[in-house]
# Entry
Amino acid sequence: MTYFLRVIRQTRWLKYPDLDWLPVGGLQGDALGDLQTTGNALSIFKVESETDKERVVIGLAANRDNLANLDYAVFEDSLFNTLGIAAEQREGATPDIQVNNLHYELRNLTVGQVAQLAQVVSTGEHGRISRKQVKSQLQAAISAGTVDRGRLKPQLLKDL
Amino acid sequence: MSPLVIASTTTTPQGKHRPTSPLETGEGYGARLLEPPGEALEHQILDVALAMTTEDHELPDWMFANTTGSLGDLQNRRAYYRVDPSARLFYLRLPSGRGKANWVDVAEPRTPFSPISVLLPTRAVRVKPPVVGSESILPDRAHPLPQGATGVDVYNSPQEVYLLGRLNAAFVEAVDEVFADGMESAFSRKLRWIIRTHGDVAIHAIDRVMEFEQVNVEVAGEVLRQVGSIADPQTRHSRLILLLRKLESTDPRIRDAASIGIAAMDNPVASESIRAAVERERSTVLKRNLQLVLDQLQATQQ
# Structure
């Protein structure tokens, strides 16, 4: 079994009874905001260990405009075949080369598949790294040379 | 009285002439009353209000910095102004006489300033009041502005009235945006600019706009994230107060966004409020997130 990570906003995945207007098992429409496709493709990262997860999270944080908390979901690929979804490895574009090698794309997604994928993501492990943690871990990654400082956005550099 | 036509040159509140047409220079657009009213006061008020249109979507700093007296007159005479930058609608109410309570509403012309046309780069528009949802948020007897949690009387703060309009427009536009943590958006840029420029008054205005029932929860959550993360020492206190208040929201999405904002501020002063929030939180997800914030603040304190 393989696990993948995608950045989300946790509040978009709150369910009943946290949001009492939702039916049991239902998802918010806003959850689709975390599964926005580009060219019908969705970007995800393979995480085979806790170390992978931590590195991917910081690599993704390094790819943003400014310093902020990072919410993520880690989910299994066990239903991908059933849903007719294939994960295809493609080099990522984060400032961490190793993280880029963990990048996959789900391609040619239909609306129905995205909706079903939302159910998969909703059952995954959802976590949060605070802004302060992102800052310290990003600084450490830059010092260690795993994140290329030269590829960080100006405001993010300023925030650090 | 014949209509007042506002042309493309003006005398600013500082008395500096802007002789060239902004339509030619691209600097903005000033105004001059072709048929000035008799009273200097009214002329001055118009000048103040028109000055607000000299920058596209942005209120020049100098206006508030240099027209305190004029704004004071506005306040004392119960005149106020309102600009909806997104729609480029110009809205202005003027007292029909000194000390009188009745109003001249340029949207529903009576006397003596009606109608007013405003020459804008894209089109000339007739003024009309902007709305929040189905209601005008301009204060009048029929539709008084709701009191926000700040309790600030809108009549005492023309600047806040202006900001309410700007923020409302920004909130409405933002509904079409999809926000992502750590990513710039048109809304976040606008919001940060407003806070940096208008300080605590902006925070009061944000608080008030968020009190409206029609406010989109996703947008409100983005506001709280931005309020917490902006580097603006001058508003540190009022921002924290706003975020702490939102911890008591009935909507878990708002509570979570508030906790993210508080974590970003990383001020241990908030520890007790967060601890109380952890205790009363029913959502497992939020309880865990709040506990993380509490742990962080306690570590910061040590």
Notes: The beta strands of chain B are 4-6, 10-11, 17-18, 80-84, 89-95, 103-105, 116-119, 124-126, 131-132, 135-136. Chain B touches chain A at residues 178-184, 218, 221, 225, 229, 252-253, 256-257, 260, 263-264, 266, 282-283, 285-286, 289, 292-293, 296, 300 (CB under 8 Å). The radius of gyration of chain B is 21 Å.
